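A reminder before we start the practical. When you read a complex entry, don't treat the lines as separate problems. The point of joint prediction is that each chain is placed relative to the others, so the output describes one connected object in space. Small molecules and nucleic acid strands, if listed, are placed in the same frame. In the example below there are two entries. Take a minute to note the order of the lines before looking further.
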Amino acid sequence: AQKVTQAQTEISVVEKEDVTLDCVYETRDTTYYLFWYKQPPSGELVFLIRRNSFDEQNEISGRYSWNFQKSTSSFNFTITASQVVDSAVYFCALSEAYESNDYKLSFGAGTTVTVRA
Amino acid sequence: GAVVSQHPSRVICKSGTSVKIECRSLDFQATTMFWYRQFPKQSLMLMATSNEGSKATYEQGVEKDKFLINHASLTLSTLTVTSAHPEDSSFYICSALDRTNPDTNGYTFGSGTRLTVV
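Here is the predicted structure of the whole assembly.
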């Protein structure tokens, strides 16, 4: 069963529009970590955020913000006032670290964001 | 912050030859290394997990005799693609984790290796 679902395959927006990327996860663990990574065309994974399961506070970092809702098992990511440089593939990931003790990181399928000038 | 150096970034090899990819943690002890493969327009698929000094644990469907993983030290893990074939052409990424300090270092990824087998 897929542990991380990113239902949106591709999103295309015009510069300055906001874009929200959805991420729904599935786990039986009570302690886990959620991540978002950006993968530009160069291929390198850029770490954006890590959130543990006990911290439901939403977070804002510049134009990026994250909405963590345990009740719906979602960890959505919003880019405000998008720019062309935001064009990339974005991955949501889940680590069921402590209780499973294998520390594997499960990735979603990714969402390709294209920002047009 | 934590840095992982992955080398080479690109490699082209002939079918039937072997290719070694190195992954080094530069400023922390990588007690666990993960190796991923990513085909074009797809997600990262975990190939294997290796703990320092132990044999790697391979995911279902990954041939351990074809993808040899060595994690002999706390700072170096290598993936060797043996007898490479064109279908092995892919983007390979390593990720290092300090299990003794997961909260601090988290997962640190290498920059990836694009392998093309001709």
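Discuss with your neighbour: Chain A has a mean pLDDT of 91. What might explain this?
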